[in-house]
Request: fold
Amino acid sequence: MAGDGEFKRDKNYITTRITADGRDGYLVEPGRYRLIIARACPWANRAAIVRRLMGLEDVVSMGVAGPLHDERSWSFHLDPGGKDPVLGIERLQEAFFARQPGYPRGITVPAIVDVSTGQVVTNDFEQMTLDLGREWSAHQRDGAPDLYPEDRRDEIDDVAGKVFQDVNDGVYKCGFASSQEAYGTAYQRLWERLDWLEQRLRSRRYLVGDTITEADVRLFPTLVRFDAVYHGHFKCNRQKLTELPALWAYARDLFQTPGFGDTIDFEQIKAHYYVVHHTINPTGIVPEGPDPSGWLTPHGREALGGRPFGDGAPPGPPPRSERVPSLI
Reply:
């Protein structure tokens, strides 16, 4: 937290990469690594989506931390015995300490752990999705989309950068601001950017080009949490997502696309934010609403054209062990 009350995200992550040539000491190898996410976390949600879209479920296993944690980090309190069934640890902190004893920074998801050593390899969420999409290409499913095409990278980076600063991180800047001035600045930037996105998406189905890209993957986790959490809990309450016609239709379009909505657990999302953030919600009461069934209503975005997966195809259903509760 800055001295002026502005929320400042610590982005000093473990940036080791897992690559096809192993140049950082970690070679792409099926079965070697375990992706740790939490259904509650928007940053982890990105990695879960890309893993699904690339069809890497049988190549990179996935552990799911529960929605609750304390100062010692995310825990596996939903797993039998309170331990991750592959890593055998109770808290993600243990994998960070195995890599660097007394690791002093935040213990964050998503994180990728080397199963053989129990050491975290990386928690760099921005690079992680790019590498799952590019470095793991030899092991991806037939029909996996190209989320970061070379001819659109500059535009993807530009749009995703603006979305990160003002929307992805912007809702946190609103929620964790400790001064009225800092909150007001973040609130204004958030809504200016959401208005910009609303205008942009009126005439195009996706953020960049006519297919799903990294830019869409990065915006979706914030939009899907907006009405359930950010509108009230983080005081981002000028309007609800459902009151923004283009953004609401766009978000439903993605939610109903295989690989997106099938990674979302609204109950875990609400449990995390409303229970863990004691300074914002000291009672720990979790709201009953909103009704999530609207996410399955028709969106009409097909009229704008576009090909969700480009020359590829949608992924199949998620493994039974990774399925989230149905909204029906």
In short: The longest helix spans residues 180-200.
